[in-house]
Records
---
Amino acid sequence: MAGSEAILFNKPVQVSLPGQYHRLFHLDLKRTPLKMDFLIKLIAKVKEWGVTGLLVEYEDTFPYNGELAELAIPNSYSQADLDALQQITREHEMEYIPLVQTFGHLQFVLKHSKFSHMREVAEFPTDICPSKQESLPFIQRLVDQVIQAHKGLKYIHIGADEVVRLGCCLKCQHRVEADFGGSLSSLYLDHVTKVLRYIKNQHPGVTCIMWDDMLRTANPKSMNEFELGQLVEPMIWNYSSDASSFKIRLQPTLWQNYSQVFKTIWLASAFKGAFGSTLHWTPTKEHVLNHLLWLQEVDKEISKIKTITVRGYALTGWQRYDHLSVLCELLPTGLPCLALCLQVLLQGGYSHDILERVSKQLGFTEPFQIEHPKYGDCLSTSDSFPGSDIYTGVQDLVLFEMSSRFKNFVTLNQLHGSMNPNASIATDLPMDHHSVEESAAEAKCLASQLDLIRKRVRVALTTVYHVITVEEWLELRINPILRALKMFVGGGSMDEVKEEDEEEMDVATRPS
């Protein structure tokens, strides 16, 4: 057995006692707030699975106020909601760690005309310009509101990853040459350490965490000159499931370099949202492999560095790749993967016994599939995890799309653009012998199957998500296929079919 398969069945490694390191559940809420009833049930459940804390990334779902009020979407959380979430985490003896971006990934701020003047590049709302006078005070106000909304806060995560247009504006280019001797990383470190010093001075007792990717090319000497190690604990992330790619992402000298700067680090894996921005089914096997690679890295490499302490893991579950991207896998579809990956970390390896035990804990009647879903992955209605009806509904959709019947229909009819109502390009391919009548009958049958799936999923979605998210997901995953099938059957206009979909959604979500 070779490659990733060999990793999957490797002998378990020795791990620390569960109480000696954190296992944070990353709750990515950007543009997609979860209903409070669901969240409260979920927090209690993930505690049972081995989670010791939440890493909460709000973005526009945080209740910003005052001059920042327009950053909050209409269905953002209230302060009372945040108080309730913090209270339940305290009751379960879990850390509550908010994450607020302070450099890159600021689309939720910079997309607004009121704040667009702070962009590094005028055309792109991704990064704030560290050379504009108003940028740092703005970030300070952003951080202040988040910290003040969390009583007894021990940690805050300042993001600071993937600053993709660092040093692009003329002001920054001048500073890089005049102030930092041509070092782009020094421009980055200058802004980040100003944010970190502000937090240390204004909010003593709060320990800062940050993503590490922008530090990987920085010189340890430069990081020490900025006293970075005294200000922050880096969170090293790597979501690769392939051993070679995993190693490439962690440079050979990375741990030695970090050991010269930091005494404490965090590690970040992923349980969903890391293997494709448009996936709607979680590739559990790939995530298990990622966690096994991290176990090996800790066992074989990090443990050799006696001056570094690993505080714990963050199991990330990205809702979107960035603020302006479409939804990745919905959170409930990734929860079985989360539960399994937690056990991989706790047990130091993977086995079918672990899978069976986790499956039973989640309410499956038999071990769930860690690769493609299959018919028979049944859940008990009484013992299943929160959001399991969404998991089942999405599973039905994936199985529908994987079915030979649907694939055969698409193959036969896409030859002439039938599944693309906007296609008007002529083709020289010969007509097949599949009659129009037979195709229409098949399309009608498939449309009926898919419509049933949509109705079930829609009901399930409304128990976890607000209407705007329900509409977004249906329009992204189901409605285009369903409309194409209906068009094939009846030849009605796309607008008419869309109006029908919208009317059905309105009825389904109307208060009783």
---
Amino acid sequence: MMSRGWLFLGALLCLGWCQVSQAEVGKLVCFYDARSFVREGPAQLSLAELEPALNFCNYLIYGYAGIDAESYKIKSLSPEITYNRQHYSHITALRQKYPHLRVLLSVGGDQDLNAEGVADSSKYLSLLEQPESRNSFKASVSAELIKYGFDGLDLAWQFPKLRPKQQQGALKRAWSSFKGFFSSSSIDSKAEEHKTQFATLVRELRVELQRSGKQLTLSMLPHVDAQLFIDIPSVMSYVDFVNLGTYDFQTPQRDPKQADLPAPLYAMYDRDATHNVQHQVEYWLNNTANAQQLHIGITSYGLAWQMTRNSGITGFPPIPDTEGVAPAGRQSGMPGLLSWPEICDLLQQHLGQGKDTDNNHLRKVGDPTKRYGIYAYRAAGDNKEPGIWVGYEDPTTAAIKASFAQSHGLGGVAFHDLSLDDFRGQCAGEKYPILRSIKYKL
């Protein structure tokens, strides 16, 4: 239990920043993947091409830094970019042209990988367990932020993920949920301890960063169970805001045999009741009185599965018998993921009139209910040509979700990611169309 002294300190700290946080309604937090700076070809996002987006963003979250497994100090995941080429300094210097902008450095984000190329949660948990490790992390964070001029730190902490659930009927799914209540130890045997220790780290970081006027935020990653790892009332007492991982509920990596809408706004029939934006928002609202500290996550990309002949021809989700990730797009080069301009290009190649004469196209299916999301697909061919099914956001669905954030009194939207929006305006002539649609609605 937190001592009275720490509670009093928390109240004093809150006097300095809670009023500002509560006054900022309709915030747009923009995530920027620094890897896009060195991508080859048309997916490379230069600083000059990044700048138009900064007119719309209140916060720019630079992703990602990592943690050294031995010293527990913060480290660059791309030192050849951030240090040798001074990318950190170039990014934070943009505030001279955009003085309204705050630039935060994010740590984790599922980009801190182990030797097998998998997001490493073990060192993020072990860091929490010892005061010496936390102190090393805090000191290195403070020095890094001051040296490169960041306005604060974003904790995209790599907790262990929930395991994918098999598609089940209602009774079987209810039984699995009941069993899951007793099986959290299979995810992390010390989850309760880590929950308390993470709250301690957040409190200690707030005290450390407050000395230099830096901000502290939390970004929840998809499939991390907040009930297991986040003491919400305590953590929210010390962070400026929380970006909720309300996207990627279904992915081709986690659900290779069945495609489904990645980020429905509301619960869908005969699906996991937690896999929607509304459920995640309501869970956090039930544990905090300050809705304005919460931002919902909206993406600029689509998740793509490969359809087979057994996947059917209607495209109506869920799609059975898929074969995992679809091939990478021509620009982004990431299997199972298509950027908005890649999707837009494929949609424009659909000739319509009930007959498709181009094998490289997508047929869009809208959502008149405005509750679940849109998708596009191309069924597998008669000669065993694989098909593709993509669940995605476009400017219209992103605006609907921004309206949802407004109607629930939330602080705003966390946009993932600037580098996957149409930053050149190649689709419809307008740069950053999804980002713009969110900002205009907010």
---
Amino acid sequence: MYLHVFIALLFILLTGGFSLECYHCRDEPDVTCNETMRCPYEESRCANLRRVVYMGGVKYETIEEDCVRASECNSWSFTATPVRFEYSVQCCDTDMCNDRPAPDLNSQLNGKKCYSCNLESCSQKVNCMKNENHCFTANDFFPPSSMIMKGCASEFACGLSRHMLPPHANVTCCEGNLCNAVQRISQSFLFLCCSLIFYFLLN
């Protein structure tokens, strides 16, 4: 029993001694981060994260410096009508190395199309950006409503749907062109988009 406790304490001391120190801030763009933190042992990377939402010609952006797990060092995006979400992350593994902003994602079109929704139906088509190789359908955002969103998504976004949407949202992805079949909607799509902007930027 005492041996197990001793080994656990020794592990904590050793891993704490080798943990990274990273910048730790949540800023508006072009603001210098001066705060730092010692990372928990399970978070082995320093990172600079950029969250961007485009809606109606307006760009909303937040920048964050933090400690992250290695599995979180993947950039992704998804495009619907009339919104586009980008999550760009740049990771490194030395002390205080997250002092440079994450790059913008490639916004070139890749030739793929997916169905998207407007106020009346989900029969619109949207052009997918460079890394968006899947079509997605997401619903049940705010139960018991049946709000629906459709569009293009990168493969990693499909695997991390719990990070990009509310935890009770039901998200499915497919790879074929226009594979996310047409479906009518009956809820306020504008309300859905606005809610997702705040959710995406604050989480």
